[in-house]
């Protein structure tokens, strides 16, 4: 019956977010696919690009917390117990991971389209 | 405590599945788990030509019609209710505290009436279980093989001398149970009151009532609003309980008593509101020491509640001379929701005469049980679905925090997430559920999908 249970969750999330749910799902799928495409095409993960994506990811984590605070008319300052800090960590982590993957994919696709290879920084001399 | 120990067989959401679904799933616990499965030997789907009438298109009536239409092929299902607006009543407290807009609880009934269900847009005027028919206000007779009564509740404002509902929203008078408009008018009075402070009085009736946690939540929210405004020190917040406790579940009563003490709420026990003088702003209570008068600057009046008139006029209520009989709650087996004198009649939702919870969470768990027994009757088998009284109450204790209280007929706490979401702890995650996850879960319930 696990499949049925999952279907119930889906119907609740559809009620909660409407078409935004499918936009987010599409973004997650496209972002992950783009990330995998870039990695397989380049055959490696470029550390400088990853670092830039992670810095954006940190901001994405805070954006996720801000969005949650907005829709719940409250915020992480209302945390009252360990499960709240866990929830805050999960929200921040999802924002971080999602933004990092999407940002890395976009930067990678741009580089591929422009024929750039993000190499090591040019050395003087 | 193991979750769902007392849950209907086959009706609990498997905990491992839940844990696998993780944190996203956890926010949906407020209505008491998500999945309901048909129990025992009852077939999921049955072909029949049975005529089924559902009275009432509120939460219980719509959820029943949706589930029946999914499980019965060829049945004639008729829904009788004149109301074109559907009201998400758990949202009233949020509207009355200025947290949600006036139209937040409002949608249209037609959005949830399942395809194939015949909706008669009239009030039911008469129930005749001997003849097996319902008569509508226009005199139309609708015969049935099975009847599900979900006619809801009557707010008996007339039982309070001096109360005038057209004065709600004026001169410190609030009453957030009457509807979205009254809830918003109550918010206007609350927001005006907190600017200067004064004496705020909260009470509940001595009858059965829907969502017995709401008067407590609203008291906590007033306390918080006064603190935010900086006028708490000039104010007195009085909670008037109708018995010697604040909540029918003893362990919850103790927790709320401690929180009220912490917040400086003045509690008066065993007081019942009998009269209100809207001019002099005085509420008159019947108390053990005789009549007590409390002057107020703001009051939230919650009137006595009884079963809907059409139910009280019928032979369906309890006949044992009890308070339940007097208020017209329908006699049902509390575990199956079946009427003992009319076995082809079921009652679900607020009008059912069962000991606990007139809440959406109760509906969530009552409806699948009643539907399963009805479908089993048609299929000629026995259902082993059981309703154990489960209900839940996200008890708001301040803006941004609530306690997820879940319990059953035995006053046992039945936490869905033991060790993760502690039932008597003020948590943000419970507030998150209340503000964003409960309404979608409720809507999915109306559609028979949760």
UniProtKB/TrEMBL annotation, chain A:
Keywords per UniProt: Membrane, Transmembrane, Transmembrane helix
Chain segments annotated as transmembrane: 20-39, 51-73, 85-110
Cross-referenced InterPro entries: DUF5368
Pfam families found in the cross-reference section: DUF5368
Name used for this protein in its record: Uncharacterized protein
Naturally occurring in which organism (per UniProt): Rhodospira trueperi
Automatic annotation (TrEMBL), chain B:
Coiled coil: none
InterPro entries assigned: FAD/NAD-bd_sf, FAD/NAD-binding_dom, Sulphide_quinone_reductase, TAT_signal
GO molecular function, one term: FAD binding
Pfam family of the protein (one): Pyr_redox_2
Protein name: Sulfide:quinone oxidoreductase
GO biological process, one term: sulfide oxidation, using sulfide:quinone oxidoreductase
Lineage: Bacteria, Pseudomonadati, Pseudomonadota, Alphaproteobacteria, Rhodospirillales
Domain FAD/NAD(P)-binding: 51-357
Species assigned in the record: Rhodospira trueperi
């Amino acid at each position: 019956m696990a499949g049925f249970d999952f279907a119930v969750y889906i119907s609740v999330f559809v009620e909660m977010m409407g078409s935004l749910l499918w936009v987010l799902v599409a973004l997650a799928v496209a972002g992950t696919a783009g990330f995998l495409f870039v990695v397989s095409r380049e055959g490696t993960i470029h550390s400088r690009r990853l670092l830039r994506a992670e810095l954006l990811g940190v901001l994405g984590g805070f954006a996720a917390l801000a969005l949650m605070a907005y829709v719940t008319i409250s915020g992480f300052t209302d945390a009252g117990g360990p499960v709240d800090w866990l929830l805050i960590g999960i929200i921040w982590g999802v924002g971080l991971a999602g933004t990092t993957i999407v940002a890395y994919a976009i930067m990678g696709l741009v580089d591929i389209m422009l024929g750039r290879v993000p190499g090591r920084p040019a050395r003087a001399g | 405590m193991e979750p769902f120990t007392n849950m209907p067989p086959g009706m609990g959401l498997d905990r491992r599945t839940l844990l696998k679904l993780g944190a996203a799933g956890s926010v949906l616990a407020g209505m008491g788990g998500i999945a309901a499965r048909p129990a025992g030997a009852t077939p999921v789907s049955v072909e029949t030509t049975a005529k089924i009438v559902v009275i009432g298109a509120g939460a219980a009536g719509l959820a029943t019609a949706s589930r029946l239409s999914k499980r019965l092929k060829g049945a004639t299902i008729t829904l009788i209710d004149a109301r074109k607006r559907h009201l998400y009543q758990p949202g009233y407290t949020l509207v009355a505290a200025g947290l949600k807009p006036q139209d937040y609880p409002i949608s249209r009934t037609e959005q949830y009436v399942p395809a194939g269900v015949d909706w008669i847009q009239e009030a039911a005027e008469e129930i005749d279980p001997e003849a097996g028919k319902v008569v509508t206000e226009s005199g139309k007779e609708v015969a049935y093989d099975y009847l599900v009564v979900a006619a809801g509740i009557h707010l008996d404002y007339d039982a309070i001398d001096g109360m005038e509902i057209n004065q709600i929203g004026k001169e410190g008078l609030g009453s957030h149970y009457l509807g979205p408009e009254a809830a918003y008018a109550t918010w206007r009075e609350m927001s005006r009151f907190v600017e200067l402070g004064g004496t705020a009085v909260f009470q509940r009736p001595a009858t059965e009532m829907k969502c017995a946690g709401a008067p407590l939540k609203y008291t906590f929210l007033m306390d918080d609003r006064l603190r935010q405004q900086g006028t708490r020190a000039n104010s007195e917040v009085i909670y008037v309980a109708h018995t010697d406790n604040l909540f029918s579940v003893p362990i919850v009563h103790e927790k709320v008593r401690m929180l009220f003490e912490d917040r400086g709420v003045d509690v008066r026990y065993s007081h019942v509101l009998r009269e209100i003088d809207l001019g002099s702003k005085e509420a008159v209570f019947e108390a053990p020491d005789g009549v007590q008068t409390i002057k107020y600057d703001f009051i939230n009046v919650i009137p006595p509640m009884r079963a809907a008139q059409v139910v009280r006029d019928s032979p369906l209520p309890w006949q044992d001379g009890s308070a339940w009989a007097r208020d017209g709650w329908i006699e049902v087996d509390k575990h199956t929701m079946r009427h003992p004198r009319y076995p082809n009649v079921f009652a679900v939702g607020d009008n059912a005469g069962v000991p606990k919870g007139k809440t959406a969470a109760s509906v969530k768990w009552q409806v699948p049980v009643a539907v399963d027994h009805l479908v089993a009757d048609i299929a000629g088998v026995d259902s082993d679905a059981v309703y154990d009284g489960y209900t839940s109450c996200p008890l708001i204790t301040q803006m941004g925090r609530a306690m997820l209280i879940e319990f059953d007929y035995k006053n046992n706490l039945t936490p869905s997430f033991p060790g993760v979401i502690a039932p008597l702890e003020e948590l943000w995650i419970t507030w998150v559920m209340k503000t964003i996850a409960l309404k979608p879960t409720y809507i999915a319930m109306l559609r028979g999908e949760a």
